[in-house]
Design brief:
This protein is an alpha+beta fold. It is about 20% helix and about 25% strand. The chain has two helices and five strands. Strands 1-2-3-5-4 form a five-stranded antiparallel beta sheet, with helices on one face.
């Protein structure tokens, strides 16, 4: 099976502006940002969709969610806030079959989003 785009970014086979990485996750700037700050946060282990996560993924996904506030603070988003978005499946707008969160901020975000 071939690697996903995000696996290749995490492996540094494809260049990206990485803003955070550790053994479980990688966060990098989106190449088509929709906000002044738009970072993708992905688990290193590929999980196509939320439904594909298993109990073995619990620690990595929990770690990801606990690291988001730290990443947001590093990006200057702590004071005014940020949005964390998960597009799950084609109708939601998921384009890469590797679970990922969009960390958005740097301006007032409207609601509803779509």
């Amino acid at each position: 099976m071939s690697k996903t785009l995000f696996e290749r970014i995490a492996a540094k086979e494809i260049p990206a502006q990485i803003v955070f990485e550790d053994e479980h996750i990688v966060a990098f700037r989106d190449i088509q940002p929709v906000a002044p700050t738009h970072v993708l946060v992905v688990p290193r282990r590929p999980i196509a969709r939320l439904e594909d996560a298993t109990p073995a993924d619990r620690a990595a996904l929990g770690h990801l969610l606990l690291k988001v506030p730290e990443i947001a603070a590093r990006l200057g988003l702590k004071e005014n806030g940020y949005r964390l978005v998960l597009n799950n499946g084609p109708d939601a707008g998921q384009e890469v079959p590797h679970l990922h969160f969009h960390l958005l901020g740097g301006r007032r975000l409207t609601w509803p989003p779509g």
